[in-house]
Amino acid sequence: MRSLQARYNRDRVMVALLLLGTALAALPLLLLLGYALIEGFTSLNWDFFTKTQKPPGELGGGMAQAIVGTIILNGVGLLLAIPFGLAAGILLSEYPEHPLNPPLRVLSDTLNGMPAILKGLLAYVLIVKPMGGFSGLSGAVALAFIMLPILAKSTESVLRLVPWTIREAGLGLGLPRWRVILSLVFPAARAGVVTGMLLALSRAAGEAAPLLFTAFGNVYMQLNLLQPMDSLPVRLYTYAVSPYDDWHRQAWAAGLVLLALIVLTSLLARWATRGRQ
Amino acid sequence: MKKLLATAVATAALSGLASAQTVNLTGAGATFPFPILAKYFDEYAKLTDGKVRVNYQSIGSGGGQRQFIEQTVHFGASDNPFNDQQMADIRKNTGSAALNIPFVLGAVVPTYNLPGLTKPLNFSGEVLADIFLGNIKTWNDPAIAKLNPDVKLPPLPITVTHRSDGSGTTFVWTDYLSKVSPEWAQKVGRGNSVDWKAPNKVGARGNEGVAGVVRQTPGAIGYNEVTYAVQNKIAYGAVQNKAGRFVLADLPSIAAAANVPLPGDARISLTNTAAPDGYPVASFSYLLVYEKLDANKAFKSEAEARAFVELLKWMVTDGQKFNEPLTYGRLPSVAQQRALALIARITYQGKPLGKDIVGR
Amino acid sequence: MQAPLARLKRPSALYRMLGDRVFVVVVTLLALGIVALSLGLGYYLYLGGAQAIERFGFWGFLTGTTWDPALKEEFGAWPYLVGTLLTSFCALFLSLFPAIAAAIYAAEYAPKWLVGIINYLVDLMAAVPSVVYGIWGIFVLAPFLRENLFLPAYLWTAEHAPGILPYLGNPSGYGFFTAVVILASMIIPYTTALARDAISLVPQAQREAAYALGATRWEVMRLAMLPYARGGILAGVILALGRALGETMAVAMVIGNTNIMLKLLGIPLLYPLFGPATTMPSVIALEFKEAVTDIHLSSLIALGFYLFLVAFVVNLLASYLINVFKVGGQRA
């Protein structure tokens, strides 16, 4: 063993190193947030929310169609993903002895880590090609593929937090198992399930890659799911790689709006589960 | 949850109503004419009180051709027309010919980012080929200096910027380089996307992307439709034409290059023109349209087909007035007549829509 | 919560039996959707890429170095595969120190109020959209690196050691190094989150025993805690690797998208440090809509299939480790 002084010094050096590492880890995020706030706020205006795209090179216009598109795509995607995601969560948590569980758990985790662009490719092969056209629907399906495993995992973990005594009480009263799950366990875990949905939304809302060749993009407001639909991330990407200053400005604004949406959902999720864990 | 569902259903119903009144057309393809197409469609939507809305996505000419063949779009746009093989394949697979309708004239220019230079650089075809092959690696290379004797060139390394997507602009550019450089023709060739040989290259998506990279990167050289350079104040060079003159792309020099006899189906390459005042890297841009519109799965009703043919006619006639403010050439009258004749051939379920609307 | 119970009549045996059966079947069928999706992903990607894989062969496509859609119509995955692996592993390496330092700091050293903030920032970091990293990369990071690192280094090397210029590559700002820096910042939260969980799962007794022996704080960490948390940290690292492999937009926006490689011992193995490179996801994102010929499209989907294989193995490993070491139980 080295001398006590040397060991103390070593301890101090390590603390300094840890601090340095933590600062390094936080630095990109802080820089990113800082730039997004400054560039975004100076670029935001009312037109951004109310107008649609202007021809390139002309000043002004906004991303109304992309904002609406993002909301529709994610909303429909979530509706599509909910039955499957919740069912998988129920199976994993409430039927621990079910033979499907081990492969389901592994495949669901694996699916969660799969590159989003591959899920877009799958939606292209399954929907765009047979239907003969880019559509909001195919984009929503691609987003649902992303949300599915997140929903399954979060549903499973919140259902597991519900005390077993509640289930035993229900079963003891002679309720069938499905009734116990739907009427007792689920309501008790409601806030957690909602949090899982918000988490899934916040993960999918920022994805551009799977929408490039499914929802495709649109310069007009489009509410019909069978038509190509715009979204904030795709519009942001298109504008960011363009040469137009005014489009760069709007891309930053889109980045800020996306970030704000995500911070908002995560705060909402925290609020929904306040006082737990 | 129920609320969400109800809203979704209501939205779907609403949009069903809305689409009964408006015609939504989807197009995809070339980025080369994107600024003018966006202008056309914006103006045309105003003209029809928003009844005809065209959603055009500039994904590149290659993409336009692809999506046209896949029939995911009502029309494609491309700077190079379909070749004979593609025309035959389309006819064989769909029973309908493909029409290549010219609607605008443009030029591809070498754009570059060299801080401090005030007047445009001169390039020759061979020097451009050598730069894009990676044989010339720095801006103060003697070959460039020889063409620009009174310019002080910086020792910056050259960043060759090319299109990463399938692109008609790339086709026009490589078509020109293939005509002027045997080494290029043999090693790279012409195409919508090619195997770029320069090790100092960067790929970017669309005319927008290439212009974006050139603007952001000192020492970069790229190739763009001239409008992108003008709109974004990116420097672009003069190119030596067949007659030996250094010509800067502008409306007269583009028009001079287009002053050639046109075949009946309007498919033609304008590069390396012999016209003494012509700019050597000019091209028409084409709309890709099925002759029998009903052969295209994207067309769901006669109303759509009718609105589309009316739009086409407007584009090659009244719409032409928007070309020149955006540095695109108007169609010469021969080309305009050819375009109208092509539109007149369009049918929908046997009905001669084109004849009805063009009026001949 | 008690209301539904009160309203219930005594259920019949039929209702109980049938209800439970039906419920399990419905839930199982729906859950099978996830299984089908994971397997279908691989299957359909294989199907879509079959044309390319058949024409060039499984290994031929994998090791092919040409990507020529125009003249020869020949395609190979090698430059993209190597680009993906190189960027991901370099980013992983770069992210290790900050990610694990932040985890240790948050788990053991930070005052309580700061722990909450760090945890929130970590979660937020994982949720920042890829395109937002991308726009920051284009307009802030790439110009900064170009002016302060790439150009000075390039000019210095051009003067003093022109021999290694090709290894530095073209200093345009868009390239390998920029992509690695962006990727590293993006994957930090994945490692940090799991490593933090792993460290906080170390039994209190373990820590107290080490303190009782007179160990300093760092020695407790080094000798008593880290060995215990090793597995969980590894799980986080592998998970982060999986994320890096599939990251698309941010990389596509800054990497320069070029498939020209440097040769090492005659084999194309490297990309220039500052110069442009490419990855599998970014080439799919950029060329998919624009591919003209069937074989080009099929080659892109085949790339997707290879990416699927790589990502599948890595994620399988990660999920195995996560389950073995029981970290990340609460997070999705």
From TrEMBL, chain A:
GO terms for molecular function: phosphate transmembrane transporter activity. InterPro entries: MetI-like, MetI-like_sf, Phosphate_PstA, Phosphate_transprt_permease. It is a multi-pass membrane protein. Its main location: membrane. GO terms for biological process: phosphate ion transmembrane transport. Residues 67-269 form the ABC transmembrane type-1 domain. The keyword Cell membrane applies. The chain crosses the membrane at residues 62-92, 133-152, 180-201, 251-272. Keywords: Cell membrane, Membrane, Phosphate transport, Transmembrane, Transmembrane helix, Transport. The keyword Transmembrane helix applies. Belongs to the binding-protein-dependent transport system permease family. CysTW subfamily. This is Phosphate transport system permease protein PstA.
TrEMBL record, chain B:
It holds the Pfam family PBP_like_2. The keyword Signal applies. GO terms for biological process: phosphate ion transmembrane transport. GO terms for cellular component: ATP-binding cassette (ABC) transporter complex. This is Phosphate-binding protein. The keyword rRNA-binding does not apply. GO terms for molecular function: phosphate ion binding. It comes from the Bacteria. It comes from Calidithermus roseus. Keywords: Phosphate transport, Signal, Transport. Residues 1-20 form the signal peptide. Residues 19-309 form the PBP domain. Belongs to the PstS family.
Automatic annotation (TrEMBL), chain C:
It comes from the Bacteria. It is found in: Cell membrane. The chain crosses the membrane at residues 21-46, 77-105, 117-145, 174-195, 231-255, 267-288, 300-322. SUPFAM superfamilies: MetI-like. InterPro entries: MetI-like (IPR000515), MetI-like_sf (IPR035906), Phosphate_PstC (IPR011864), Phosphate_Transport_Permease (IPR051124). Keywords: Cell membrane, Membrane, Phosphate transport, Transmembrane, Transmembrane helix, Transport. Gene3D superfamilies: MetI-like. CDD domains: TM_PBP2. Pfam families: BPD_transp_1. One of its GO terms (cellular component) is plasma membrane. GO terms for molecular function: phosphate transmembrane transporter activity. Residues 81-318 form the ABC transmembrane type-1 domain. It is a multi-pass membrane protein. One of its GO terms (biological process) is phosphate ion transport. Belongs to the binding-protein-dependent transport system permease family. CysTW subfamily. Part of the binding-protein-dependent transport system for phosphate; probably responsible for the translocation of the substrate across the membrane. This is Phosphate transport system permease protein. It comes from Calidithermus roseus.
